[in-house]
Amino acid sequence: MSAPQPPAAGTPVQVKLVLLGQAAVGKSSLVLRFVRNEFQENREPTIGAAFLTQKCKVDDKIVKFEIWDTAGQERFHSLAPMYYRNALAAIVVYDVTSAQSFDKAKSWVKELQLQGSPNVVIALAGNKIDIIKSEGEGAREVPADEAQAYANEAGLLFFETSAKDGTGVEAIFNDIAKKIPFEQILAKANAPRQGVNLHEAQPTPPQNCAC
Amino acid sequence: MADPNHFDVLVLGTGVAESLLAAAYARKGHTILHLDARPHYGAASAALSFHDLTSLSTLGCYTDLRHATDPDHATWLANKSREFALELNPKLLYARGSVVDLFATTGVGRHLDFKLTEATRVHRGTAPGGDQALLVPASKEDVFASKDLSLADKRRLMRFFTTSMAMDAPPATEGSFADYLTQNGLTGALQDVFVHGVALSRTPGSSLPVAEGMARAHKYLQSMGRFGASPFLLAQYGVGAEVAQALCRVAAVYAGVYILGRPITSVLWDADAQVWRVKVDLDPAQEFTAKRLVTNPGHITAASSASVGAPTYGALVVTQRPVREDTGLGIYVVPPPADGEGEAVQVVHACSELKVCPDGTFVVHFRGSSEADVDRAMALLLPCPEDILHTTRFVHRPNAAGSDEPVVSAADGAPMTVVSWPTADLDMDVDLDAVLDMWRAETGLDTLLEPLPNPDEEQIVAEAQQVQAEGLEEPATSA
């Protein structure tokens, strides 16, 4: 094994990011806004994508987010441990017009702190803020200061977002990227006895035996 | 919009076989409802915390669980409970086997963490201790470097390796694998190494047909050197449970609906409406219907179980000292006594690197054809009782049925697929191949899973479209 080397400048650091939150709070919409800059009203729950990727620049480093959506497994609280595993970041989403979704978000934060990686960076996103803009504060069920106070107490990043008009979406991913502990990731990537990547193996016949 | 409570396929149990079919059906566009009354994925292959494992007396095909914990370490183990991911029957993945091929070609394997085993060793003789065990070569270099083999033996072994590798089909020879090896000059210790190590057979060479023995040996030799010297991979956090979760994730991504940890109150075939009716206690109970049922044998009566196989006996040992200090992830085999009857005992040795146990502990899995065989192997490989923190013994009954509520009675004409429990074979491909046969019979298709879209490629396409649409240069964030 060669000595640990710093990655070449411009090599993206891969970061797994998971989404959590009650069904229909707009988790997938946030991702699609961030990754493809698009929004669909009344979209069906996500089909066919195990995860999506998008890059973010922080100073001279590039973070490549590998964004995992719940694929509906949150609906009956049946997310597999694999979902949280190795996630360095998480966005817990609620709907600012639903107090119930905020309660649910708090229970997801607890679950993450129990099941997730020890240093996972968690951001709380109060989504659908566009509804407040168009219908007024009367539509709001979760006051921003209450959510901010909870986020401070629990040590979370906090943003109010709108997947529909794009408010806060870039900001939340950028701020997460800034909080990613790069040194730890790089140290781990250079650790001896790496795991096996099925996709990087050379599909050549075993060389040991080809005489 | 279609009835959201009606599905094409109802799948009971989240074991590897059930999850394979769930993923296969979902990927083909069928709607899936996948249920498991237990709170964890994997059914019989679940990877459990120390507390959860030691609370069980039966888990699917594993019965008669008996737990013995060293009282001095009971509190420590309880505190570390969640650092364990304990599987009763961990399987090996051959580097050139059907599970690895499926995972590599579809992309399902992208999110599993695999480790190579470090060594396979055959423990001959009666002196206790891991240092008595012979290394099974995982490369020609291993053969040359061996201190256990004479020069003449090295030559014979090398010749046999080379001819076996080049062989496209097993030799058309009658008789046993042992006879065939003897004809090729491989006797005594070399024969044990080949039968129980390279071919990884529990059955002695004298009762193993030559075609089967050579097929198994060929697979070992082909798998060497693909990802490293060792032919075997293990997945972190428990092989079966991880494979099952990865497959369930595929089914979920293709719109499968998952409900775990909720009691399933009834499953009935409604002959008039030609649908399965399942009630799940979602507080309140909710009924779903499905055209077809896939289940593991836990939910059926013994009479309708097609699974066969003699019981094997297992032990899972948590110890604070490895069998050998130089090997964390390893395979050991204790062959049948030279003079005696019986089969070999196979041992899978794991350390905390596999994320199945806390640092400083080791999980050693034994399986054999009798309790006495298992005891003998344990005494040889783990000779110091004071190192042992915990032992769980169990019986693996591949034909077990009706272990889980509710038990479904098969009705005439009811569309139903009963998958098998995991077999006692260390090779996980055996389990996958059985599912592939069912899938082929059911659908006429030769492929279980089409490759999944690669998000990176999709991303490139999306970025290209964006560039085209905007008529701009590449987005600034691209590398």
Automatic annotation (TrEMBL), chain A:
It holds the Pfam family Ras. Keywords: Nucleotide-binding. It comes from the Eukaryota. One of its GO terms (molecular function) is GTPase activity. PANTHER family: PTHR47978. NCBIfam families: small_GTP. This is Small GTP-binding protein domain. It comes from Allomyces macrogynus (strain ATCC 38327) (Allomyces javanicus var. macrogynus). The lineage of its organism: Eukaryota, Fungi, Fungi incertae sedis, Blastocladiomycota, Blastocladiomycetes.
Automatic annotation (TrEMBL), chain B:
SUPFAM superfamilies: FAD/NAD(P)-binding domain (SSF51905). Pfam families: GDI. Signal peptide: none annotated. GO terms for biological process: small GTPase-mediated signal transduction; vesicle-mediated transport. GO terms for molecular function: GDP-dissociation inhibitor activity. InterPro entries: FAD/NAD-bd_sf (IPR036188), GDP_dissociation_inhibitor (IPR018203). One of its GO terms (cellular component) is nucleus. Belongs to the Rab GDI family. PANTHER family: CHM, RAB ESCORT PROTEIN 1, RAB GDP-DISSOCIATION INHIBITOR. This is Rab proteins geranylgeranyltransferase. It comes from Allomyces macrogynus (strain ATCC 38327). The lineage of its organism: Eukaryota, Fungi, Fungi incertae sedis, Blastocladiomycota, Blastocladiomycetes.
